[in-house]
From TrEMBL:
Subcellular location field: Endoplasmic reticulum membrane; Mitochondrion membrane
Protein name, UniProt field: Caspase recruitment domain-containing protein 19
Pfam families: CARD
GO cellular component: endoplasmic reticulum membrane; mitochondrial membrane
Alphabetical list of Gene3D superfamilies matching this protein: Death Domain, Fas (1.10.533.10)
Native species: Alaudala cheleensis
Taxonomic classification: Eukaryota, Metazoa, Chordata, Craniata, Vertebrata
Subunit field text: Associates with BCL10 by CARD-CARD interaction.
InterPro entries listed in its UniProt record: CARD (IPR001315), CARD19 (IPR043574), CARD_BinCARD (IPR042146), DEATH-like_dom_sf (IPR011029)
Length: 179
């Protein structure tokens, strides 16, 4: 996208109330006036820094003036905006379009949030169910010797589960082996 078209697209966003404050606009005008290449002459800079005019009017006039001057001037405006207000620069509508050029593309930030919004309790519950089903399947398999292997597995369980839970599991396994 050309910078003039981007500036046209971002003009309403930038001129809406309380997006850019007076200090940031003054810094941008000064940068466009003093930094090489000089985009604004001294007279133009005085005009756009005039405190008698409203901020909205000055900013609108500045953006229109830069669009008339050409793409290089608009590019320098974006550079000055990025230096003086990085957050606003990243929130520009044209920047969001540049970040997601394909509308069918999945927004990974939103997708990541969607997958992780359940929290740790949900994870622990799912893990517990899966571990319980795996242990049940392992113990109910008739081809393996349940008691010997289960004792080895449950022997290390005081670290993971309490002793009383381990004892209940062991009693259950012994009961199952007798039947």
């Amino acid at each position: 996208q050309l910078y003039c078209h981007r500036l046209q697209h971002d003009m309403y966003f930038l001129t809406s109330t309380s997006r850019l404050n007076e200090q940031v606009v003054d810094k941008i005008v000064l940068q466009l006036n003093r930094v090489y290449p000089q985009i604004l002459t001294n007279e133009e800079a005085e005009k756009f820094r005039n405190p008698k005019a409203s901020l909205h009017t000055r900013l609108s006039d500045l953006l229109k003036h830069l669009q008339k001057k050409g793409d290089r001037h608009c590019q320098e405006f974006y550079r000055a905006l990025q230096i003086n207000d990085e957050q606003l620069f990243n929130d520009l509508p044209s920047r969001k379009i540049l970040k997601t050029p394909d509308p069918t593309e999945i927004d990974t930030d939103k997708e990541q949030y969607m997958l992780n919004d359940r929290g740790p309790v949900f994870f622990l519950a799912c893990f517990s169910v899966a571990a319980g089903l795996a242990l049940f399947w392992y113990c109910c398999n008739s081809e393996t010797q349940v008691i010997g292997r289960a004792r080895r597995i449950l022997g290390f369980s005081p670290i993971i589960i309490g002793r009383h839970v381990r004892n209940i599991c062991m009693l259950y396994l012994e009961d199952m082996s007798r039947n």
